[in-house]
Amino acid sequence: MLCHPPASALLSAKSWLLTLTAHAWQLISTNTKCLGFFFLALSLDIGAAPIPGLILPLQDVQIGTPTTGIVAEILVKEGDTVEKGQALVRLSDEVEKLDVERTAKVLEKAKFDHEAAEKLLADKIGTREDALKKRIEYDLATIQQKAAQVRLNERTIRAPIQGIVVKRDKEPGEALLLDETVAQIVHIRQVYAQFYLEPAQAQSLKTGESMSIKVPSLPGSRPITGRLDFIDPRMDAESGLYRIKLLVDNADLHLKAGMRVELDVSSPNPK
Question: Which pTM value belongs to this model?
């Protein structure tokens, strides 16, 4: 048997449900406004915060070799400042030195024969064919002597850049293979400051303009000016950010590779 509640009870229940619904919508509206203000404040705070970055060496080179052999002498240690072309490692080179001497003697004889054949040809005693043969032998001897000198020069491994030796991979007596390195050199008289920016921030920048960075790890340091050297035309697929690199002078070497730096893109660029 179905129960039918009185009309007064139905009206009371309907009134209570309408009141509850009104309070619920008021609560939702209030919280939505609060959340909106929260996210607005958060976005403003993020936009004003400095962008973190990293100091990178201008050049970072792993020194290899075009030849193989036994390490005879290491001429530098970690921490040494080297100039471009400075000798770093010398490999055993006794055989190469003897080959330079041998090819020099061969060249000397070939030159004598060539000059003699030219003189005989001028005196109409020798033949043109013989003079040509001696000239070719002289040219080949010249090439062989130069090649022997190149092989000797390759036994001394030199710095391809100016910088600081940060790693030494070999010691005297060790064997060196073609796919191995002997040392690592970094150039930090100029450095890169690398950052990742939002698309809107990156698109407003142009290479060549000056920007100011800060180095929190240097106590009392003042802002440092760098020149925008590179804007990556590719967006990072994961983060949706663009990579930029500032070129910064570092003659006193106070900036070290790996230091954390900060960039404020909202501040006016220094002139």
Answer: 0.71
HSE-up of residue 65 (Cα within 13 Å, Cβ side): 28
Q: For residue 215, which of 250, 165, 242 has the smallest C-alpha distance? A: 250
Q: CA–CA separation, 51 vs 48, rounded Å?
A: 9
Q: For 47-102, write each residue's pLDDT tens digit.
A: 458 899 999 999 999 999 999 999 999 999 999 999 999 999 999 999 999 999 99
Burial class (CB in 10 A: 0-12, 13-18, 19+), 229: middle
Q: Where are the beta strands (DSSP E) in the chain?
A: 51-63, 69-74, 81-82, 87-91, 156-158, 163-168, 175-176, 183-197, 210-214, 224-235, 242-249, 260-263
3-state secondary structure of 253: coil
Rounded CA separation 98/218 (Å): 55
- Asked if 253 and 81 touch (Cβ cutoff 8 Å), the reply is no
Edge-first strand listing for the sheet containing 156-158: 156-158, 87-91, 69-74, 175-176
Beta-ladder partners of 220: none
- The span from the CA of 100 to the CA of 148, in Å, is 5
pLDDT tens per residue, range 52-64: 999 999 999 999 9
How many CB atoms within 10 Å of residue 262? 17
